[in-house]
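Translate sequence into structure tokens.
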Amino acid sequence: MIRKEMIAMLLAGGQGSRLGILTAKVAKPAVAFGGKYRIIDFPLSNCINSGIDTVGVLTQYQPLRLNSHIGIGIPWDLDRNNGGVTILPPYEKSGSSEWYTGTANAVFQNMTYMESYHPEYVLILSGDHIYKMDYEVMLEYHKKQGAGVTIATMPVPIGEAGRFGIVVTDEHRRIEAFEEKPAEPRSNLASMGIYIFTWEVLKEALYALKDQSGCDFGRHIIPYCHEKGKSMYAYEYNGYWKDVGTLRSYWEANMELVDLIPEFNLYEEYWKIYTRSDVIEPQYLSADAVVEKSIIGEGTEIYGQVYNSVIGAGVSIGRGSVVRDSIVMKGTCIGDNTTADKAVIAEGCVIGNHVTLGAGEEAPNRLNADIYSFGLVTVGEDSVIPDGITVGKNTVISGVTVREDYPQGVLSGGEVMIKAGDAV
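Result follows.
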């Protein structure tokens, strides 16, 4: 009989709608990050670096690229006969077929998978955060406290606490209250969405709430455990942690990687971030190329200038072009004499010659001013922008566009160009 002390359930099924057009064709955990990685690489690498060799990845929305990226888990040393990584999509059961309706419901639907390992503890993770954490240290804390539930927390400015699930603790870090996005927070300890459950406690809560619509850990499971008097503790984490759930936070987290002294270090030997790497040629910088304070992916050819940017693998940047404060993802081609300022350009795009991205003053985006903001230009996957087009700030473009789509060759600030059939 297989027994695992702790297994991980990695929630990777979310659409990530606050990333707008970037997640129209891929799940948020599969979005590129840092020129080489995908967001899910970080919790997966944390697992293997923490000695956790059994990980269930729960997928649902647009799973194809996520599934092919993970494969059988070779890059993370998770290709194992006993444990390893397992993709867990929703599946048809006798008499019914059910989508995952909430984070806890997704875990409950995979009770058979968890029970097959007879775990003592279950680690619940989100697939959309950038951080490094030794879960083994958190488990030792959980055991020491004799906890039924341990919630990873981190201090946040009290003014921002209302955006998080907040825990109120006593002097021993025992949780006295849990408040989901409170209007008037009583604490600045925010839940990171990382939980360790003693198996029997988790099993009891999942079965008790199995008929709860949209059953969720933050809204349902944690309050249930608290009401039932389960021993609950807060594990305080003080390292780098970033929820890259919005375009602004996603752009900022990438830009932080190219700081002179980056707060988040991708190059530490003792805590490597693993990913699936294609076998491609080295990068090439022409004699006229200028690159300053940037990350440049393998196989990329640069003939122009790149400043303070994160450039993915297999990108081409033409002569006379200037890319500044931007993210350019894998396989994108930027023509000659083109300028990109504060642009987020998804995979496989073609940007023509003499194009300007990020021109003029800011204006609120007419489609969704909350998502498409902060002066960014967002270009969706496999999009084409023809020669000679000027694009303003807080804009979004998706699809194969032609010159006739742009009156006077301009997409003004705050405007939207999404071709029929492309989701937002």
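Note: The helical segments are 41-49, 64-70, 103-108, 111-115, 135-145, 199-208, 217-227, 247-256.
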